[in-house]
Design goal:
The protein is mainly beta. Helix content is 7%, strand content 57%. It contains 3 helices and 23 strands. A hairpin with a 2-residue loop joins strand 18 and strand 19. The longest helix is centred in the first third of the chain and has 8 residues.
Length: 266
Amino acid sequence: MTDVSRRFVFHGAASALSGRVYRPRELAGVIACPAASALTVAGGLSRAEVSKRLRVAPWLTIGGALTEAEGRFDDLKQAIEMSWHRVPEDALTSSTRVTAVVKDLDVTLKPNRLTATLLSAALESSSPRDKSGTPIRLGRKTDVKGLAIDGYPLTVVIDRDRFEAADTLEKLAAGERGAAVSTGASGPIMLTTIVREVKWAKKPHPDATIDKNVVEVKDFGRIFLGELLATGDSRRLTIMRLQLGSPFGISVGVGDVHTDGSWYPP
């Protein structure tokens, strides 16, 4: 018989990068993830690392990657007591953290080239305390460094203060302007960005434009930075998403992390 005692179901996942090439046909296929981590319902630690330069596709290389997903109960002494059945599991609190790091990304599709020395996404969540949802915060390791297009460097400013403090959907929605909000089967879903500003560090690229967190490059495609999908109980952060166009058709996500975690029964 299945045990229906109330317990915390851990959930956390991190992916370095993955995607798909749609055209040209001779290159079409899946872009496999070189490093990924995911938790079981019991928590613990899942870790994967690429420590050397790797060619992920004919036009894409990385210098290394690291993913981690960790779930644990906050008070070890209380957790030990729980293991003796002296304390119920729902008397404990838990924490989950997910991290995805990609180093030295190089995307070369003639005539354009995109490089970044560091792309890092991190989320930290706590077990729900009430009906306000799962508290989830932006992790301090989240960062974009050394981003450049054809040698034209960009500065990406992350709104750390806001997203490290806004740990519920209600707090995220407060004062939000321009976010796309839809209603799904489990309630409201918000698409926003953790990026406060993207700007050219020096001279602007002659064939590129910036619109909020999106950089569009002629004959190359669009670069989406710091996209965050949020519900009342989950967050999914993608530090970079590429939609590359003519003459190619390529979709790639880089530095993708997801966490929710919940009590069962609710």
